[in-house]
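Re: [ENG-882] Designed sequences occasionally contain unexpected residues at chain ends

Forwarding the minimal case from QA. Structure tokens:
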């Protein structure tokens, strides 16, 4: 990652953090432990799925996934 990309990423993360903070109940912001839990919850429910979906959409070849899925269903049928 270039220095410019790092700077842009930090700006976007600050903007996302501000939105998440605004949507976090005050009682979850009382101490480090509750803040950490609130952040983890936001990351797991909002941030990570969106990044995962973005990465998945960028995959040029979907045939590997289709092949893997058919292998899984084939192995299930033999059980």
């Amino acid at each position: 990652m270039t220095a410019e990309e790092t700077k842009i990423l930090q700006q976007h993360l600050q903007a996302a953090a501000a939105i998440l903070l605004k949507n976090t109940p005050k009682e979850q912001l009382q101490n480090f432990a509750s803040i950490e839990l609130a952040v983890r919850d936001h990351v797991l429910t909002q941030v990570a799925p969106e990044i995962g979906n973005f990465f998945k959409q960028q995959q040029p070849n979907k045939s590997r996934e289709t092949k893997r899925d058919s292998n899984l269903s084939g192995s299930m049928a033999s059980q």
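QA comment: On inspection the terminal residues look reasonable. The longest helix spans residues 32-57. Proposing we downgrade this to a documentation issue.
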